[in-house]
Amino acid sequence: MSDILKKISEPTLRVVGYVVLIAMSMYILTPLLWLLLTAFNPEGGPFLELPKSITLDNFVMLFTGKPIKGRAGAAHPFYMSVWLQNSFFIASVVLVIIIITASMAAYALSRLDFPGKSLLMTFILLIGFMPSMAKILPLFKLCLMFGFIDNLFGVAVVIASSLLPTQIWILKGFFDSIPRELEEQAWVCGCGRFGTLMRVVLPVAGPGIAVIALLSFLGAWGSFTIPLILIRSEDLYPVSLGIASVFIHNPGEIGLAVDYGPLCALSIVYALPSLAIYYLTRKYLMQIRVGKMEVR
Amino acid sequence: MVEVRLEGVTKRFGNVVAVDNLTLKIKDKEFMVLLGPSGCGKTTTLRLIAGLEKVTKGRIFFEDEVVDDGETIFIPPQKRNVSMVFQSYALFPHMNVFENIAFPARIKKLPDREVKKRVYELADLLRIRDLLNRKPHELSGGQQQRVALARALMIEPSVLLLDEPLANLDAKLRVYMRAELKRIQREFNCTTVYVTHDQIEAMSMADRIAVLNMGKLQQVGTPDELYDKPSNLFVAGFIGSPPMNTIECTLVGAKYLDFGSFKLEIPGDWAKVLHREELVFGIRPQNILVSKSKKEGAVDFYVYVSEPLGDRIILTLVKDDIMIKALVDKSTRVGMGEEVWVIFNLEKAHIFDKKTGKLII
Fold first, then answer.
1. Tell me: the pLDDT tens digits for B303-347?
2. d(Cα B239, Cα B228) in Å, to the nearest integer?
3. How do beta strands B191-196 and B31-35 pair?
4. Which of A10, B5, B168, B327 qualifies as a cystine partner to B285, CB 3.0-4.6 A?
5. Is the dihedral of CA A221, A225, A230, A235 positive or negative?
6. Cβ-defined contact of B78 to A190 (cutoff 8 Å)
7. Residue A197 touches partner B, C-beta closer than 8 Å
């Protein structure tokens, strides 16, 4: 009797499951679908509609910065390509800063024994856990002092400092998993500490470096609050601020004055590096998952 | 090529004494084996010579130069011109075999042509020529071992340090590489310190063996010296396969050794040197004669286990609470539980002091 019930109930449950899943994915995917369609729609608006024709004008506009004839330039199209450059500059500087500083710090934490080491590591971890907005007031004062306001390099330094603690911890886990004997072998072969780091440890820690490079680039690429506080001039905005500014500059009727086509194109271009980097480094990302990274 | 001397070297890790007041001279071009059970301090000694650890007390000399005196002088491993093969081989996983072997020369910035020539020479010598383009993870254990050895020989080291290089190989390859290593050491003529816990490896390869236990040096000598005249019970029990039988006994009236369940008459010249009563009688399994028929002066045992090795048989013999091992010819066919008669070859037997463990005869 119960067997029959089971047989009847099983497919029903599965159907219910699918219905729920489909509903949820529609909820999540519809805005993305709108984004995609509007980016290629010459007359896109804030509604989900099938474009009558397909155009690449919105993308062209992003990079040429010239508004399309006969349309309101409410979205500041001439800034969009500058915003992309700014974002790229910030993310690249953050990436370089973090790879250099995190690899040296993580190596020291992994290999050297010095008094107060565990305290220092706890401290680094705590700073990493602290919400960045909690320390924004003293940080702002500091940025004023250093002239980091309205300064892309300054913004990059501040973003790097906020991302650094976590990256140090991740990389330390990678360094810990490299056998000490490899380094000792290099020393015996005549290699100094710095040479060993450059010739042996860093190449072997390649996957780990790739992971923190990815995480720090994406972290900086997507950062919003720190640029919001430190950057005033519109021509120094990163993309995140730029997209937001389009709405901030157009109060009143929500979004109606916004030129949706170029904005959606910008959003897609903005999302592409994240996807591309994930695709290129997925092999290394998998390695974290199989346990190469041990946060101790 | 240098002579290495350790003078009163002590190494402590916290409260643990890894090496205890070790004095040892490794002669130029000598193949010295540090032998001992795990945790005896042999690897630590090797790391001290390499400069990977600093001595707590004592001094280490390379020829006449102090390389480590535990206080002011410490020459780092980079400047000692030693080569080392780790037990795990420590091949650099991101370099191919060629670059691994060439690594020490690259650090020394030798000209490219010279490096190539040398790598090819070594690769031919160690029969890894066709592996030069592979990465370490594509090699078998034996191949990795040879690559590590080639890298160690790439520059002419003052001292070649080998830390259980054969431990991770399978039994057959181990025997083969044992002979290869010995030949290569003779060919390169470099001072070599070899760490192992395998006494057969030590016996077959070494010019001299230093036996360590609990951080203390037990005995240094040629394999023959260690085998024929072990200085104490530890060395006696460690060298030889199967190891020496050691049976506690007491001396009775300078005439007999009393084992409890039987007595042995001792030769006249023994009586002169035996002064203590509490002794340990030691005899190698090879020096025990076993026969099935009763003989004059023989002691009766029964066969507890019989382990045939092909040409010979290891017999485990029991009499009351005494258990000994005897190595006999395979013609001596005895079954488990059978009674046999045993004669000890007293000319090759040893007597140790029970209290100190030191050799008397």
1. 999 998 888 999 999 988 899 999 998 888 888 888 999 999 988
2. 10
3. parallel
4. B327
5. positive
6. yes
7. no
Confidence of residue B203 (pLDDT cuts 50, 70, 90): very high
What is the DSSP-derived secondary structure letter of residue B242? T
pLDDT band at residue A66, thresholds of 50, 70 and 90? low
Q: Is residue B63 within 8 Å of residue B88, measured between CB atoms?
A: no
Q: How far apart are CA B208 and CA A133, in angstroms?
A: 69
Asked if residue B205 and residue B138 are part of one domain, the reply reads yes
Q: At residue A242, what is the residue type?
A: G
Which token pair is A212?
Answer: 């923190």
In a domain, B161, yes or no: yes
Task: Give the span between the Cα atoms of B355 and B276, in whole angstroms.
Answer: 10
The lowest-confidence range among A3-17, A137-151, B245-259 is A3-17
All CATH 1.10.3720.10 domain ranges in chain A, comma separated: 79-292
Mention every residue, 6+ apart, whose C-beta is less than 8 A from residue A295: A169, A170, A172, A173
Cβ contact A181–B50 (<8 Å): no
- Note whether B39 and B213 are within 8 A (CB): no
Interface membership of A206 toward B (CB under 8 Å): yes
Q: What is the CATH number of domain A79-292?
A: 1.10.3720.10
Strands B350-353 and B216-221: unpaired
Kindly indicate the confidence band of residue B293, based on its pLDDT and cuts at 50, 70 and 90: confident
Q: Mark whether B163 and B214 lie in a shared domain.
A: yes
Nearest to A227 by CA among A239, A215, A213, A212: A239
Band of residue A253 on the pLDDT scale cut at 50, 70, 90: very low
pLDDT digits (tens, 9 = 90+) for B245-271: 999 998 888 788 888 888 888 888 888
Verify whether the Cβ–Cβ distance B86 to A203 is below 8 Å: no
Specify burial of residue B241 (Cβ count, 10 A radius: 0-12, 13-18, 19+): exposed
Name the strands in the sheet holding B299-308, side by side, starting at the edge strand that comes first in the sequence: B288-291, B339-344, B299-308, B312-319, B322-329
B31-35 and B208-213: which strand pairing?
Answer: parallel
Q: In what order do the strands lie in the sheet with B57-62?
A: B16-26, B4-13, B57-62, B65-68
Say which CATH number the domain at B336 has.
Answer: 2.40.50.140
Distance CA B162, CA B33 (A): 9
Supply the range of the domain harboring residue B147: 4-238
Residue A8 is classified by DSSP as H
Report the alpha-carbon distance of residue A138 to residue B58 in Å, rounded.
55
Q: How far apart are CA B323 and CA B106, in angstroms?
A: 59
> If 0-12 CB within 10 Å is exposed, 13-18 middle and 19+ buried, where does residue B301 land?
buried
Domain count for chain B: 2
Burial code (b: 16+ CB inside 10 Å, e: under 16) for B200-236 equals: ebbbebbbbbbbbbebbbbbbbebeebbeebbbbbbb
Q: Indicate yes or no: CB of B82 within 8 angstroms of CB of A190.
A: no
Could you give the C-alpha distances from A7 to A1, A11, A12, A236, B338, in angstroms and in order?
A: 10, 7, 9, 64, 70
Interface contact A195, partner B, CB < 8 A: yes
Distance set, CA B296 to CA A173, B288, B299, B304 (Å)? 73, 15, 9, 23
For residue B124, tell me if it sits in a domain: yes
Q: How many CB pairs under 8 A join A and B?
A: 56
Residue keyed to tokens 């000890």: B344
